[in-house]
């Protein structure tokens, strides 16, 4: 009579320390971010444009401000540009006064953009609408 073979015991799990070592070797998923092209790069996620520029709403005349680029106190240089209000008034003047070019010639109808006189950086704007 043959002795009944004992069922083979399942392999013992690896000791705890070995398991920890394997986990540490595995690449950490939190350090990998998908790129725009689908490829991945390691390291902390840094958006390409980290400089957040907050534009100020400034008056319509040159004003004293701190330039966000060169960090100096300057009196802004203003440039007038046609904006939404300019074109709305052009339409209305053309409709009622049959002379649509008045708002295009008057600064009072235009948007005002402020620039730094030293580094020429855009600082802020004043929109009529
Ligand atoms: Zn500046």
UniProtKB/TrEMBL annotation:
The chain crosses the membrane at residues 85-105. Its main location: membrane. PROSITE patterns: LITAF (PS51837). GO terms for molecular function: zinc ion binding. Residues 46-128 form the LITAF domain. InterPro entries: LITAF, LITAF_fam. Belongs to the CDIP1/LITAF family. This is LITAF domain-containing protein.
């Amino acid at each position: 009579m043959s002795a009944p073979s004992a069922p083979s015991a399942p392999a013992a799990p690896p000791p705890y320390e070995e398991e920890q070592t394997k986990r540490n070797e595995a690449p950490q998923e939190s350090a990998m971010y998908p790129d725009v092209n689908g490829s991945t790069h390691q390291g902390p996620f840094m958006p390409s444009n980290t400089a957040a520029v907050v534009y100020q709403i400034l008056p319509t005349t040159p004003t004293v401000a701190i330039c966000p680029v060169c960090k100096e106190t300057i009196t802004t240089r203003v440039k007038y540009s046609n904006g939404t209000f300019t074109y709305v008034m052009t339409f209305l003047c053309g409709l009622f006064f049959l002379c649509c070019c008045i708002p295009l010639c008057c600064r009072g109808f235009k948007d005002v953009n402020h620039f730094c006189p030293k580094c020429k950086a855009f600082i802020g704007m004043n929109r009529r609408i």
